[in-house]
Amino acid sequence: QVQLVESGGGLVQPGGSLRLSCVASGFTLDYYAIGWFRQAPGKEREGVSCTSTSREYYADSVKGRFTISRANANTVYLRAKTVKPEDTGVYYCNAKTSWTSHWGQGTQVTVSS
Which end of the chain has fewer CB atoms surrounding its CB within 10 Å, N or C? Predict the structure, then answer.
């Protein structure tokens, strides 16, 4: 069964850090572009970061604070530091090629004191 599962979300204080994981089962992520997206309450889903062919891209709002990396053939991380309340939302992982796309179910991140 092809599946993507995100984990690592939770409650974190402003200025803190966390690491989100995206783990694939039933396929490997080697030939996929991987993207992290988030959706805050009442807002549209937005792109946060993506990695493709060893290059990384970041939204201006997270540049310098978030880092995307491939841990192995099945896992991609999104590390966040110096988090802000506006980073709150459900974070989704997407694995995409030119002919297919897989989404995870999301993990909730809440930045609050």
Answer: N
54-107 pLDDT, tens per residue? 799 999 999 999 999 999 999 999 999 999 999 999 999 999 999 999 999 999
Distances (CA, A) of 40 to 43, 51, 64, 70, 79: 5, 22, 21, 25, 18
Nearest to 22 by CA among 82, 107, 96, 86: 107
- C-beta neighbour count of 90 within 10 angstroms: 18
Transcribe 3-62 into DSSP letters: EEEEE--EEE-TT--EEEEEEEESS-STTSEEEEEEE-TTS--EEEEEEETTEEEE-TTT
